Amino acid sequence: MELKSEDFAILLALNQDPFMSMRELSRQIKVPESEATERYNLLKTKGVIKNPIAVYSPASLGLKRIHVNTVLPNFSCLEIMEELCTAHPYTHYRSRIFGGSLGLFIIFDIPIGTEKHIELLFKELTELEVVDSFEIYESTGIRIESYPNLEKYNAGTSNWSFIWPIWFATLEVDPPRLPAPSDPPMELPTFTPVQAQILRFLTADASLSLDELSKKAGFAKKEIEEAYRTVKENYIGEIRFIYDRDVFDLTETIIAFGSEVDLRRQEKLYEGMRSDPPPFFLSLDLLKDEKILIWITMSPGQASDFTYACWQNIPNFKIHVLDTKVKGSMLYCFYPENFDFIGGKWKTSLEYMVDKPLSTTKKAILNIQK
């Protein structure tokens, strides 16, 4: 679909507010409301604009984010691991990795105190020869993100106006201290089934109305309305506008790890993200043991400059390109069944977090052997 200037203006406006009314949208892009509505509907029909999603805060729910990087022996094992990710109750995201070896990058949002369960799971997978090797990275809970600033994109030249070496050079400014990580709650006695169902549906489609949520979740509209307010105030970090990234040449997704990154350098990176965020989706996660994770989606032209600048500025820098095509990656919705509403706690048994997912893996192995 060839985009007009009005289309880019619509995307710019909705990037600031995904729920903007047609009246306000027409006012911002300076066209009649009927024309704004027509262009918006066409962009939706063509798949340029997609439904926004809610992004929940793991810490607010008493969950800890764990990143696992795996090296796998063959493609059959890759398919088995993808089945495991779907079977595991706490999988948040998984993606195939491009590079010198076949691999899978996985994010788990797990209950506090169950880190050893994930380690045991991957040791078992190694013994089953499904995984060659793995690395587990634990977040400190200090994370900061930036989002595409579409105003930095020149639709005429298809270029982004941003220079990575200059950005890294500004990190020499004396920054403040890092924020203290918040202590996630160990129990959620007031977390209710209706709140959990709302989270489940909003993480897939945040545009759902209260009537639609009531119908999908099977609760009365009044109960949905009260719970919706609580969920937005306490558990949702943001509502993310989703669009076809190819339109802005945002087609390259990279994860980069750095180790032996001292506190001073962490402070500089965090302050740079806070005061002068790059105009791309970029997540900086400060990990335990002086490690960092950078997750970024940008144009291929920007990717080479980013990589070179990181090699110059981040110790022990390792980079992986993620396969973000339809079959190459998957973002999992919130899973209410993980929570014991009677006890007010997440399910944390070895059977639930290790044995059951492994049983799926073992069945997949037997099917391949047959």
Give the beta-strand count. 15
Which percent range fits the helix content? 25-40%
The CATH architecture designation of the domain at 5-47 is Orthogonal Bundle
Order of neighbouring strands in the sheet with most strands:
2-4-3-12-9-11-10-5
Classified by CATH, the class of the domain at 5-47 is Mainly Alpha
Taking the sheet with the most strands, its summary is: 8 strands, antiparallel, barrel
Class from helix and strand fractions: alpha+beta
Overall average pLDDT:
90
CATH topology of the domain at 5-47: Arc Repressor Mutant, subunit A
Which parts are unreliable, with pLDDT below 50 for 5 consecutive residues or more? none
Note the topology.
Elements: H1 5-16, H2 22-29, H3 33-45, E1 49-56, E2 63-71, H4 75-87, E3 91-98, E4 103-111, H5 115-127, E5 133-146, E6 153-154, E7 159-160, H6 164-169, H7 193-202, H8 210-217, H9 221-234, E8 236-243, E9 252-258, H10 263-275, E10 281-287, E11 291-298, H11 300-313, E12 318-323, E13 329-331, E14 339-340, E15 345-346, H12 350-369
Antiparallel strand pairs: 1-8, 2-4, 2-5, 3-4, 3-12, 3-13, 5-10, 6-7, 9-11, 9-12, 10-11, 14-15
